[in-house]
């Protein structure tokens, strides 16, 4: 007991300083936790509104804001215990450079992810084609972009690959042009075929009036004259209208007495005298 009393007497100032710094550390961590929650809530509301309800970028910035608060708290705590934070920052910087060189491919994904998040060539739930993959965007993180294909397959693409390739976004624009092609026989009337296409359009109220639909002689093929309907529709209705029109076009054309030809080959056998 006397030894403990003597130790406390000799190191009283150091023990009090450590106890004080420990209590301050606890208060700083509690304060950091509260500030982190408040800041994340405020950033979430502000970014969600400014980004026009973009969930992906809102989630990223909200998470980063929470980390920043804890990083500042750690620096303050280290300073309380006499750690040279300037040297620590230099050491962390050097370590970061070494790690960056070792993980340059991974960091390229992060850089590409940041560009994708802020330039927004694709957003969550949009239907896109990227690097030969087609599907709905399920998530866009700092490292990968996740798609779900039309048949329900999970596809994870590195962000650097997404950024380095052309992105075809099928849902970004409000309207899309629908091209429907049908072949008629060379012996049939082109005007009757075009009239059948006009009737199809008149029966589908979801086809846009502006831009006006076009009725064209597309190509003179080997066994048919190919007529084409080019009509604009609202993007959300594109596939429904496309499949419905494809389903009706055969009956509509044939109702005009027009034949839809298909490739045929005539085989002529010539009997020669055997020698």
UniProtKB/TrEMBL annotation:
* Compartment list: Cell inner membrane; Cell membrane
Q: Tell me the ranges covered by the Mechanosensitive ion channel MscS C-terminal domain, including all copies.
A: 180-260
- TM annotation in the entry: 15-39, 60-82, 88-119
Q: What is this protein called?
A: Small-conductance mechanosensitive channel
The protein's UniProt keywords, in alphabetical order, are: Cell inner membrane, Cell membrane, Ion channel, Ion transport, Membrane, Transmembrane, Transmembrane helix, Transport
Purpose of the protein: Mechanosensitive channel that participates in the regulation of osmotic pressure changes within the cell, opening in response to stretch forces in the membrane lipid bilayer, without the need for other proteins. Contributes to normal resistance to hypoosmotic shock. Forms an ion channel of 1.0 nanosiemens conductance with a slight preference for anions.
Q: What is its main location?
A: membrane
Domain Mechanosensitive ion channel transmembrane helices 2/3, first and last residues per copy:
67-104
Q: Which residues form the Mechanosensitive ion channel MscS domain?
A: 105-172
Organism this protein belongs to: Pseudoalteromonas shioyasakiensis
Q: Which InterPro entries match?
A: LSM_dom_sf, MS_channel_1st, MS_channel_C, MscS_archaea/bacteria_type, MscS_beta-dom_sf, MscS_channel_2nd, MscS_channel_C_sf, MscS_channel_TM-2
Asked if the keyword Cell membrane belongs to this entry, the reply reads: yes
Q: How does it assemble?
A: Homoheptamer.
Q: How does it sit in the membrane?
A: Multi-pass membrane protein
Describe the family membership recorded for this protein in Swiss-Prot or TrEMBL.
Answer: Belongs to the MscS (TC 1.A.23) family.
Which SUPFAM superfamilies does the entry link to? Mechanosensitive channel protein MscS (YggB), C-terminal domain (SSF82689), Mechanosensitive channel protein MscS (YggB), transmembrane region (SSF82861), Sm-like ribonucleoproteins (SSF50182)
